[in-house]
Amino acid sequence: MKIQLQEVGEVLHLASSGRVIIRLTKHLRDNQILVDSSGVKVAKVSEMIGPIDAPYASAVPLTNNIKKQIGKKVFIVEETPVMRPKRFKGNRRR
């Protein structure tokens, strides 16, 4: 599978609850994993907050040095399947 990174937002700050607040440029699903530009897991989206036209996400940090990520872009990983020839489906018995 080919792995592509798609930019989805920027880390704003670390909340007092320990969660990370992220300004989004794209709507995400809950429990989606966010990575940095090198592909290292940074956070897991726990809930979407704010208006629909300017969404934010509250996310659980997955790294100990989350303060280094403040102000940096975050991405989601898109895996595209590699094309391979289709196999015969069905019974071959006669």
UniProtKB/TrEMBL annotation:
SUPFAM superfamilies reported for this sequence: Translation proteins (SSF50447)
Protein name: Uncharacterized protein
Organism listed in the record: Nitrosotalea sinensis
